[in-house]
Each structure stands twice: as structure tokens, then as C-alpha cells.
Amino acid sequence: MNAHSSHVLVIGAATMDVKGRARKALQLGTSTPGEVTVSFGGVGRNVAENLARLGQRTILLSAVGRDPFGAQILERTASAGVDVSRVIISPQCHSAAYVAILDERGGKTLAVDEMASVSLVTPAYIYSHRDLFAEAAMLVIDGNLSPAALASAINAAKRHSVRVAIDPASTTLAPRLRKHMADLALIRPNLAEAEVLCGHAIHGRMEAMKAAKELVAYGVETAVIALGEEGLCYATAAGRGYIPAIRCEIVDYTGAGDALTAAIVYGLVNQLPIDEAMRLGVSAATLTLKCSDTVCPDLSLERLYDQLVI
């Protein structure tokens, strides 16, 4: 299948993100001076927007409320090039939202999300869009889906021999992915999520490398464990590797993992060497770390190659 003529199908959350970054050390029980920004998020939506900005045809299945936030989420996502024509717009619930408190370095200290609208992404909704699986180059799912919707999407992909990539989305949601390992082309946890998936603590880069091989032993084709400021390690049945992070001034950590996932998916869909796909992922994460938006608005394939880790 020609990756350029086919699409990547993404199923997951679409949210409004509110982020407060402190200018100095946070203090509990009182307010801390800082900056508050509003942007658009949701793991699935972020991955879809990043893919579209890299030039990949992308279709998003998600749900928003029939409210101003929902309209803005869809407008931003569509303007990036994502096909949002199948997204549910519901009068029964309001759009999903995510609130994060960042420390003075841009690191997430606390976060609260309200994802009720994602419950509208049901097996019936997925089945009603089964035509989208037939021509898909890859399916990308985020862990916010219900267990039933997750299983339905993976089964639809299997029926059409479509490879599946999953971002666990959080340590709370990661356990529901264990039973699907053998059906995955790609899983992209961070270190904490990998610990949940493997069932044990992971200390340092070498243990993370072993953990990635462990995930492959469970049946995953490619396991990528994001190590934050240390970069990433990955494993396949053929081998394993490590890509260091690119040093940069960090504005905001939010969305960096989703950019990483999207660029790796882009590389796999377009049949790039595995090592190159991983380097593109690190490059995309770096551009996002330097940006106050959850998805870097001037992300492009050219920009990724400009700062590729050699």
C-alpha cells in the first residue's frame, strides 16, 4: 500500500488544554505567579495533528461537545490538515478538558483531566466507520478509549491487516493494554508506563533497554520507551538501540511524547529504517519541548531533518 495515498487512522481523545507554569517554586495552599496558556490537546488529537503537519494524510475519530471549546478544537485540528469530518459533535456532554500545573522548568507536577466525551467513542461508533480501516496505512490508538472500544478498534484493524500503534496515555490506563500486546506493531510508553506494563521497576538506560525487549517478547513488533531528558530506547525482534535526547531550553513538556509517537509512526508508515524513525521522533519531541503550544504549529518534516541526531 502506498503510504502517501493511504491514510493513518487515529482514534482517541481531543481536549482543551489549560496549563499554568509557575515562575518560581510552587507552594501548596496558595497561588504562585506564572503564565496561564490555553491550547488544544488530547493524545489522539495531538498525534493526528503532528502527523498531518508532517505531510501524512490523517483521519481522526473522536468526540467533542457541541460547545465553543469543541468548535475551536475541530477548527484548529482541521486547519492543520486532519480530516475531522467523522468526529462526533455531541449536545449531551461538553468537550474534554485537561488542566496541568507546571513547575518553573516546565515539568508537570499535577494534572486533572475530564474525559467523559471519550466514552462516546463506542464499539458501535467504530464499527460504523469500518470503511476507514480498509485503506489505512496504520491505526493509532490512545489509552483513553474504553476497554470495549480498544478491543473493537484492534479487531477491526486485524480484519483488514492494518498495523496498530498504541500510546498508553497514562500509568492508570496502561494495564488495559497488556492483553493486546501480540496485536501491536508499536507501543510507546514512558518509563512509568513501561514499569506498569512490565510489572516491575526500571532503573536506568540498560534496564529500560531490557524492558523494551521484554515488551517485544510479549508480542509487540516495536517497543519504544521514552526516557525524558535521556532520550529513548527501543527494541524489535531484530535488535535494540538507544537515541540520546537533543539538549535544548525547555518551555513546556506537554505534548512532547505525542510528537515523538507521531514522528515514529510517520517513519514506520513510510518504511524508513527503524533507527531513522526513532531519530525523527526525538527531533519532533525536541521541537515540541521548545514550544508553548501542545503541538508545535510550525512542525514540518524539513524542520525535523534539520536537527536530526547524527
* Order of helical and strand elements: EEEHEEHEEEHHEHEEHHEEEHHH
Mean pLDDT: 92
Q: Which structural class matches the secondary elements?
A: alpha/beta
Shape: globular
- Beta fraction of the residues? 15-25%
As a whole number of angstroms, the C-alpha radius of gyration is 18 Å
Q: Describe the largest sheet.
A: 8 strands, mixed
Low-confidence stretches: none
Annotation field: number of helices = 10
> How many extended strands?
14
Strands across the major sheet, in which order?
4-1-9-10-11-12-13-14
Question: Could you tell me how far the N terminus lies from the C terminus, measured between alpha carbons in angstroms?
Answer: 30 Å
Helix content: 25-40%
Set out the fold topology:
Elements: E1 7-11, E2 15-22, E3 34-41, H1 43-53, E4 58-61, E5 63-65, H2 68-79, E6 88-90, E7 96-102, E8 108-114, H3 123-128, H4 131-134, E9 136-142, H5 147-159, E10 164-167, E11 186-187, H6 191-198, H7 204-217, E12 222-226, E13 232-236, E14 239-243, H8 256-269, H9 274-289, H10 301-306
Parallel strand pairs: 1-4, 1-9, 2-7, 5-6, 9-10, 10-11, 11-12
Antiparallel strand pairs: 2-3, 7-8, 12-13, 13-14
Structure description:
With 310 residues, the protein is α/β, with parallel strands linked by helices. The chain is built from ten helices and 14 strands.
